[in-house]
Amino acid sequence: MHQGTLMRKVKSKSWKKQRYFKLQDDCMTIWYQSKRTGKTESAFSISDVETVREGHQSEVLQSLAEEFPPERCFTIVFYGRRGNLDLIAGSAEEAQCWIQGLRQLIDVATTMDQREKIDQYPSCKHSSAPTPSHSPIADHSPGPASPSPLQDADKSESGTLEGEEFVLFYKALTQREEVLSLFQEFSEDGKKLTLLELVDFLQQEQLEDKDIEEMAMELIDKYEPSETARARHVLSADGFLMYLCSPEGSIFNPQHRALWQDMNQPLCHYFISSSHNTYLIQDQICGQSSIEGYIRALKRGCRCLEVDCWDGPNGEPIVYHGHTFTSKIPFREVVSTLGKYAFKVRHPSSGAGWWVALGVSQDVAVIVLCGVVMVQDLRGQAPWKSWALQMASLSPTPQELKHKILLKGKKIGRLEDMLDGPGDEVPDVSDDDNGAEAEEERRRAKVVLMNDAPITQHGSALQKDKETLAQALSDCVIYCKNVSFRGFQEARSHSRPSEISSLSEAKARKLIRDAGNEFVRHNAWQLSRIYPSGMRTDSSNYSPQEMWNVGCQIVALNFQTAGMEMDLCDGLFRQNGHCGYVLKPPFMRDEETLFNPSDPSSREGLGPVTLTIQVISGQQLPKVANCKDGAIIDPLVRVEIHGVPADQAHQETKYIENNGFNPRWDETLQFQLHVPELALVRFVVEDYDKTSKNDFVGQFTLAFANIKPGYRHIHLLSKDGTGIPPSSLFVHIRITE
């Protein structure tokens, strides 16, 4: 890998170009260049790589299976929405060298602590490799008043910094005066924190209240770099900084990273991470359909996926956005992908094997032959029916549905008929989603599970085939039977907890505006799905917050589109083991609740809380994507509150000129939250521009309920939602009632 290897970079069956790949001396950067021109094309960091797939495990490589053996093929998968890198090595031995080498480097990168990331930072960003566009080391202009760190580091007095000299200079620049000052407040001699001094800090500032002395001992053992200090049960300034930069020092409550909520409540009592047209990875009209859309959504914690099934060639059903120019993928590949990735554990903290029920929202428009294939494919992947007949509850819980897959769609008859045995009633074929989706179905001349006309004994053979097929497909739908929404009173009188209605974002907003409390009550006993407007052809998103405010469980978003809306989604579902289910507050699970999001006083419980945030400093902020060479960012921090209308707010700090390296703000922002249980807090760093819109630098979003008070670091994420270590903010949080 250090010597370099010539491999084929593949984008399609016809696009196969030779590129020279080389691992840099820092063992953290890989760059590649064109064989023909010798021009460097790109570079990427090992920390950007999520995994390496071996063999024909991408659509592109599968299309080349007859031309290249699987032993020579592999796929580099990046975090976030960045496209995969498909490669074909010259031999199986070369492929294995890169596959195993990359996997080892990924393991090293993922197990680094914050101090190791900081120590790696200067060499990573200043190797002989091309400097990545987000390198922030140039984002500091010390000015004429501060030449001493540079002079001190220049031991050779050559006027330049080389090797260890640069590392010394970097460490001098990264000296955290604000952290040292805090350390010295609690240290009697200014050099160390004794066990009791650390206990005082944890109790007074971090507001820890359980087993504090034991916690202090654990922190010293875990983060103190000096063996002598560990033996004496004291914490040095370096150890103190390492603790503050660790998960225990994060603004996100580490206890909430694990599965911490009750998973034995009915499905309708949870917010459920949900995607819209999951197969699309671009726009809604001409975009690419890909199984990667499902893989990325599942890895992001999504639990409700969408599959639009249509009649395909040779009796094979296909998946695509009907009556558009989007590309098509075989239904069989989608089902196979779900079987492979649906229950993979991504986060160790989520518990061994814990992934709760996956809901698949399926839009079916197929002829009989394709429908038979669909049923065979489905039953080949999951026990769709057998387990359901053993269930007595019409309101199953995530715990009961663990490792099960639910199919949402049309259904003949009622769930009770499957549980108690078939009755004599005429099969009920429900209408599908109302509004724009229903209109789209009518335009498609869609073949439903059964014809609208009553079935008679004189029907044609085709009609009987459709009837048999309809029953087979219907039997795959267990708990999530689609029903049209005809008003809250109608739903209360005739609907059942096992049914679900889908509403467009516009219809949902009207119901929120006209009948907020009724909507909350409805969602306390039945599932609601919200989907984006058909006008969002660019795959843009609506804010999910207003839908969560009335308890809508399945708020479907276009996962392929980065932005504030997906930040909120990621922020809400970052908790609870990242399982994709978040328990709603008690006042939203009560069918007789008086809560209305437009009237915060209707919430039962304590009064408003005050959230006070002191934004102290920033560390190693990345450059913006379109930043000119040599330009230095002018960062500011904006804090946004997303919640009920009365809580919606934002405030921001002043901007700091020419310093993305270690800016200091020391500003205090304050917010009053009337319904903190529904609030999300979004921290955004932007590059100030007085002549145009500010540029995005980084963000982090979390539920108010997951915030830890005290002195905390906020580890920033990119627009894609991936980490950008070691970039962070240092803040102090206080919450008062």
TrEMBL record:
Could you tell me what reaction this enzyme catalyses? a 1,2-diacyl-sn-glycero-3-phospho-(1D-myo-inositol-4,5-bisphosphate) + H2O = 1D-myo-inositol 1,4,5-trisphosphate + a 1,2-diacyl-sn-glycerol + H(+)
Kindly state which keywords UniProt assigns to this record, in alphabetical order: Calcium, Cytoplasm, Endoplasmic reticulum, Hydrolase, Lipid degradation, Lipid metabolism, Membrane, Metal-binding, Nucleus, Repeat, Transducer
Q: Which GO terms describe its biological process?
A: intracellular signal transduction; lipid catabolic process
Stored InterPro entries: C2_dom, C2_domain_sf, EF-hand-dom_pair, PH-like_dom_sf, PH_domain, PI-PLC_fam, PLC-like_Pdiesterase_TIM-brl, PLC_EF-hand-like
Subcellular location, principal: cytoplasm
Domain C2: start-end pairs: 589-718
Record-annotated PI-PLC Y-box domain positions:
473-589
What is the required cofactor set for this protein?
Ca(2+)
List residues of the PH domain.
1-107
Membrane topology per the entry is: Peripheral membrane protein
Q: Where in the cell is it found?
A: Cytoplasm; Endoplasmic reticulum; Membrane; Nucleus
Which top EC class is named for this enzyme in its record?
Answer: hydrolase
The protein's GO terms of the molecular function aspect are: metal ion binding; phosphatidylinositol-4,5-bisphosphate phospholipase C activity
Recorded hits in Gene3D superfamilies, A to Z, give:
C2 domain, EF-hand, Phosphatidylinositol (PI) phosphodiesterase, Pleckstrin-homology domain (PH domain)/Phosphotyrosine-binding domain (PTB)
Please list where the region (Disordered) is annotated: 122-157, 418-441
Q: Where is the composition biased (Acidic residues)?
A: 418-439
Record's GO cellular component terms: endoplasmic reticulum; nucleus; plasma membrane
Signal peptide annotation: none
* Ranges of Polar residues composition bias in the record: 125-134
Enzyme Commission number(s) = 3.1.4.11
Q: What is the designated name of this protein? A: Phosphoinositide phospholipase C
Origin organism is Rhegmatorhina hoffmannsi (white-breasted antbird)
Name the lineage: Eukaryota, Metazoa, Chordata, Craniata, Vertebrata
Could you tell me the gene encoding this protein? Plcd4
